[in-house]
Amino acid sequence: xxxxxxxxxxVERSATVALLETVQRLRRSGVEVLDLSGGEPDFPTPEPxxxxxxxxxxxxxxxxxxxxxxxxxxxxxxxxxxVENGIHVDPATGVIVTPSAKQALxxxxxxxxxxxxEVIVPTPAWVSYPAMAGLLGARAxxxxxxxxxxxxxxxxxxDGLVTDRTRALVVNTPAxxxxxxxxxxxxxxxxxxxxxYDLVLIVDEIYEKIVYDGRVHLSLASxxxxxxxxxxxxxxSKAYAMTGWxxxxxxxxxxxxSQALKVQEHTVSCAASFVQRGGxxxxxxxxxxxxxxxxxxxxxxxxxxxxxxxLPGVTCASPEGAFYAFxxxxxxxxxxxxxAQRLLDEAAVTVAPGSAFGPGxxxxxxxxxxxxxxxxxxxxxxxxxxxxxxx
Length: 391
Ligand code: PLP
Fold this sequence. Notes:
Layout: H1 15-28, E1 34-35, H2 47-58, H3 71-85, E2 95-98, H4 101-112, E3 118-123, H5 128-135, E4 139-144, H6 155-158, E5 166-172, H7 184-197, E6 200-204, E7 230-235, E8 248-251, H8 254-267, H9 273-285, H10 287-309, E9 324-328, H11 336-347, E10 349-350, E11 352-353, E12 364-368, H12 373-390
Parallel strand pairs: 1-10, 3-4, 3-5, 5-6, 6-7
Antiparallel strand pairs: 2-8, 7-8, 9-12, 11-12
Helix pairs in contact: 2-9, 3-9, 4-5, 4-8, 10-12
């Protein structure tokens, strides 16, 4: 029989992608599924972005671009990072535009991890970080976070995890699935930790535009001493409702970015030309759209949290950022997988079981509120009817 590479031994298929496939299959067979399992904004991509990409297509902008990205977008990213994030990079040497944040993350991890190396991943975490480490023959080591301190990361959790193979720490702020937003004291502790053990920080800021109650997103690379060891990853999927466009970027110090560029050159060459033109419009002409989406997410967050809090055995802290409610279901006596399965089988509502997000995730389920109010209201009704049975 054919042989596949050893690296797949530790890698599962994406649990959230599998859920999406289940939803599509059920819908084809006529079931009216209310899907809260995904991470996809239901908003249309803002009009200036679409118009710019269409005009790029019509004007023949349909060929390879420089591997790093088109100069206009590199400049727009560098300007944005300077103004909004306090991150200062040279657009010519410190940024790579990638086809998706996922690709930027994979490139970042490949840039710093050799086979056998370790990367610390605070969990519960987005499912792809440990999988990507596995695909590279490296190992993700979980730093388990807890609800008692709001899923904050601290030296207390980190210090015992370092070995002579530890090369990097992944930080995701605002965090998927917990909704935690990094605070300054936490950020300072993380940077001190990375400096002490000479680690690279790989920081995924894809939810930066989605922070609530006047909180301010803080970029780790803006802290003193951090820039020289931080790779910042971001993307257009969430902030600008551009999941299908596949556009993101990686920014950091030249010695790391120059190596990362080799990954890009020898794999994808570049992000799609007209998509990059749309990206320039997203960064420069969508402030009103982004503000309107945040306002709507805030309403949906409050609807979702109060619906969850009304269920017997369920509690839910209001997320500080991103668009997920991470509900504590321990009071129901069900495992997260059993809870999610019952919701699917008995109410046709899909949620992601906390167990999919690694150590610390059991006892929770993640509900995305990047769905319309109508879908959220429908799901709330179905859940309260079902909960009457387990109460
Ligand atoms: N990072 C996190 C934390 C995410 O939740 C997601 C999407 O689900 C991504 C990265 C991937 O974004 P992209 O669509 O740009 O690949």
